[in-house]
Automatic annotation (TrEMBL):
PANTHER family: METALLO-BETA-LACTAMASE DOMAIN-CONTAINING, METALLO-BETA-LACTAMASE SUPERFAMILY PROTEIN. InterPro entries: Metallo-B-lactamas, NDM-1-like, RibonucZ/Hydroxyglut_hydro. This is MBL fold metallo-hydrolase. It comes from the Bacteria. The lineage of its organism: Bacteria, Bacillati, Actinomycetota, Actinomycetes, Micrococcales. It holds the Pfam family Lactamase_B. SUPFAM superfamilies: Metallo-hydrolase/oxidoreductase. Residues 14-217 form the Metallo-beta-lactamase domain.
Length: 244
């Protein structure tokens, strides 16, 4: 679906990936689940684009529900897959974190796993090759995405800032739909390696003035990046869910 001129989403509020469309081609942010490949093809067609016009795929981190179709895109189309150097092993399946589940609600968990199963998420195809990046890099891709290091959810979690479309892609640095409880609104994400560090890292996003904040899970927010950060910090301090 088109969110704004040059800005598109595939997937839904449970798991999402994004496309930045420019005259120079398309940059994909995250790769969702394997079954999102068909959604990608359909969205590109609706944009008047083809898979050959994808110039790069940038991962916010290396978790399985973000690398879904990445290896297929690399293998079949030769598209480079960018990931922070600290998450390269994670994306290649060489390092598998121990998940900390935290609070859960049956409905939230069931919705997440039902959707993941329907989209092929019960089997992960890890990347064979990656192109590494680091904090502060500006990638030579459509939209000139700038990489902002956000360690916490994982060691190599990043935000991706694309000022030309007013967008800040945050992966699981925060969420607007908790996949284990179903609660909605800006809040810390589950399955986070270092929760306190993840909250501290949000400082790196202050003052960017991005209109759109686009998480890997949950509805996109147009409330402005500083306001979203404020709400996440408030939720972390309260230690409670938002509305279900």
């Amino acid at each position: 679906m088109q969110l704004a001129p040059s800005l598109h989403r595939i997937g839904n509020d449970i798991v999402a990936a994004y496309l930045v469309d420019t005259e120079d081609g398309v940059t994909i942010i995250d790769a969702g689940l394997p079954g999102h490949w068909r959604d990608l093809e359909k969205e590109l067609a609706a944009m008047g684009r083809g898979i050959s016009e994808v110039r790069g795929l940038v991962l916010t981190h290396g978790d399985s529900d973000h690398i879904g179709f990445a290896e297929r895109l690399r293998r079949e189309q030769g598209v480079p897959i960018y990931v922070h150097e600290a998450d390269a092993a994670r994306a290649r399946g060489e390092f598998k974190p121990k998940a900390q589940w935290g609070r859960m609600r049956l409905g939230g968990v069931a919705s997440f796993f039902w959707y993941a199963a329907r989209k092929g998420g019960l089997r992960t195809t890890y990347l064979r090759e990656v192109t590494t990046m680091t904090d502060g890099d500006v990638l030579d891709l459509p939209g000139a995405p700038r990489i902002i290091g956000l360690p916490g959810h994982s060691a190599g979690s990043v935000a991706i800032h694309v000022p030309t479309v007013g967008a800040l892609f945050v992966g699981d640095a925060l969420t607007t739909r908790h996949v284990l409880t179903g609660s909605r609104g800006p809040q810390p994400a589950p399955f986070t390696d270092e929760p306190a560090q993840a909250i501290d890292s949000l400082t790196h996003l202050e003052g960017l003035g991005a209109t759109w904040v686009l998480p890997g899970h949950g509805a996109p927010s147009r409330g402005g990046s500083d306001e979203v950060i404020r709400q996440v910090r408030a939720a972390a301090s309260a230690g409670t869910d938002h509305t279900s």
